[in-house]
């Protein structure tokens, strides 16, 4: 059921819930029609769930939260830069290296990520549970998690120090993206590199948020910076066979490795 949510079938992602659910042939559309909320008819179990099983259910509901189901409409993925040809690795590489600023018309910019405030507004979780996982006593919004949280926001300063530039952070996602990607001045190569790093930072923070929320695992910000470095290095090596630099050089002088310092 729903291979397009999280990259694999829900029965594979949540085997314990699949074992306990009564209707194993239910589709996501069935769940929506019967009710996804706690106690809704979409969730019928062979026995009462334990507390840790309830946590799995909340994680599953979080995945389903941002799904829109439309009857009689073909369900498919569309690669926006090339709707006809579809996604290719070379196409993604061209998007990052052609100097064009990618569209920010995303779930992030539109505030459609399953943030706790969004979940609370829709009654998925109580308002009292909508605070940031860092323990900073602020409610969780996209701007807070990625830009303003006293814990996660410090990652941007660490990244700038690694690259070797200074900058000022905006508290608006779209403005922050533009400021960050242009902070080293004009130039196609510089802009493309900083777009990649910005997206890596967002990805690392989002995964850290989920690890803290669902797995009770905390990673310190300097280690998050290391993840950004490793992910960006891995991406560059995977997409450019001529990129021969290793971790030591990448850690110490990323722009020199790219020939854009």
From TrEMBL:
It comes from the Eukaryota. PANTHER family: OS05G0421675 PROTEIN (PTHR36617:SF5), PROTEIN, PUTATIVE-RELATED (PTHR36617). This is Reverse transcriptase zinc-binding domain-containing protein. It comes from Medicago truncatula (Barrel medic).
């Amino acid at each position: 059921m729903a291979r397009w949510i999280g990259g694999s079938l829900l029965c594979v992602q949540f085997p314990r819930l699949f074992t306990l659910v009564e209707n194993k042939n239910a589709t996501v559309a069935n769940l929506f029609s019967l009710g996804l909320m706690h106690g809704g008819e979409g969730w019928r179990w062979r026995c009462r769930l334990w507390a840790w099983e309830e946590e799995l259910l909340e994680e599953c509901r979080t995945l389903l939260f941002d799904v829109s189901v439309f009857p009689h409409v073909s369900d498919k993925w569309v690669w926006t830069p090339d709707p006809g040809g579809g996604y290719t690795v070379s196409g993604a590489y061209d998007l990052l290296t052609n100097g064009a600023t990618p569209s920010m018309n995303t779930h992030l910019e539109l505030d459609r990520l399953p943030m706790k405030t969004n979940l609370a507004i829709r009654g998925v979780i109580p308002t009292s549970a909508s605070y940031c996982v860092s323990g900073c006593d602020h409610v969780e919004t996209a701007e807070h998690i990625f830009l303003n949280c006293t814990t996660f926001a410090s990652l941007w300063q660490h990244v700038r120090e690694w690259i070797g530039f200074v900058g000022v952070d905006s508290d608006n996602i779209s403005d922050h993206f533009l400021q960050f990607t242009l902070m080293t001045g004009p130039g196609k190569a510089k802009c493309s590199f900083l777009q990649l790093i910005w997206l890596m930072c967002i990805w690392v923070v989002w995964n850290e948020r989920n690890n803290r929320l669902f797995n009770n695992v905390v990673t310190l910000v300097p280690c998050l910076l290391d993840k950004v470095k490793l992910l960006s290095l891995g991406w560059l090596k995977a997409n450019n066979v001529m990129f021969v630099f290793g971790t030591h050089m990448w850690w110490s002088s990323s722009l020199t490795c790219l020939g854009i310092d």
